[in-house]
């Protein structure tokens, strides 16, 4: 199993280019199931989660051609198996995103229930309820969601809570439904908007994406299209937090600061110098940051996917920060690892009280999930002496060569077996 060995203490300098967004790529790959014509994607990130989704779609019968490393042409003219098996779903919960498109296109779908994951229970009841409201017959047997509907019907559906993939699943299903669907209390995340742009390019009729009410007028069929995946705002935020923590002067290129305004505000509150440009962000930092409190919530508030990285930053702040996680029940597993590096953090309920310390010291730590891994990389960059991070397969699910990109900025990181 690969590990990262980080020699802390190097400031970062230079320019880094952000890859396409994982959380936009995964639903957009599934959108290709909605049409018998080719969907051509560019700026596709080369990540393990993307490869897993591609192999899931390949098993269903989708043909895929890559003209360049970050481009793919998806051809779902035939779907042989409208099935997402447990073996793949258990490794990546986002496989549930195949459910809506498969059902809308094939009239039936069989997708394994994802089960729990390290950061919380993460049920999919909203996905199922929404499809039932659109007239699908759904039963749960042998650990599978079995859904059938000759043609889905437009409806008004109010989500009990804000769910990103739930909104994406129902939005995709509704594009081929009979009549108008309105999704209320919908997720407003930029990745939902990127998916809507792709679907509209495929001939879907969608208004309101980016607001909490999305209206979809169903059409008989969708056609082929080309779409460039949006830049990854969480990768962008990770480079911001890394530079803020390690110190230095970095330009993050090929990104969009608007999707990250809440994170930028918090970094500024922590004393970090950030300049936003059209498609780039410059971040400069020296010395210890100031303390800043953070509360995660759905977009446009501070994203849960940046909580761990921000905690690594304020673990060295001058002062005490309170970090509250409101989206997932168990997303504080990085705390005990940060403590091994000398951080002073106590967890009280869903909040972490972080008393900033002057220095962290390198140690052996273990990555527990994707963003916790990024948090430990950032902590390793500022710690005195070497930090070894085990189980970094979590990191490879969601970051494209993170250590190479950081090394190009002056970090000293080695990947070892
Ligand atoms: C997506 C992102 C993930 C991010 C999360 C929150 C993708 C592929 N993943 O995950 O990186 O951390 O949004 O921004 O885009 N819930 C239910 N019932 C449901 C659905 C969700 O109770 O049917 C709960 C979840 O347990 C969680 C909360 O709603 O507590 C939000 O989850 P959700 O937005 O659905 O997360 P994902 O879409 O899985």
3D structure, described in words:
The protein is α/β, with parallel strands linked by helices and 417 residues long. It is built from 14 helices and 24 strands. A 4-stranded mixed β-sheet has the order 22-23-1-24, with helices on one face. Helix 1 (22-31) packs parallel to helix 2 (48-60) and helix 10 packs parallel to helix 12 (370-382). The longest helix has 14 residues, at 233-246. It is elongated. The model has no long low-confidence stretch (mean pLDDT 96). It binds uridine-diphosphate-N-acetylglucosamine. Residues 23, 26, 93-94, 120-127, 161, 163-166, 191, 303-305, 327-328 line the site of uridine-diphosphate-N-acetylglucosamine.
Give the low-pLDDT segments.
none
Percent helix among the residues?
25-40%
Terminus-to-terminus distance: 6 Å
Give the biggest beta sheet: 4 strands, mixed
Rg measurement, Å: 21 Å
Percentage of β-strand residues: 25-35%
Whole-number mean pLDDT? 96
Content-based structural category:
alpha/beta
Number of strands: 24
Q: Which small-molecule ligands are present, each listed once?
A: uridine-diphosphate-N-acetylglucosamine
How large is the count of helical segments?
A: 14
Shape: elongated
Q: Order of strands in the sheet with the most strands?
A: 22-23-1-24
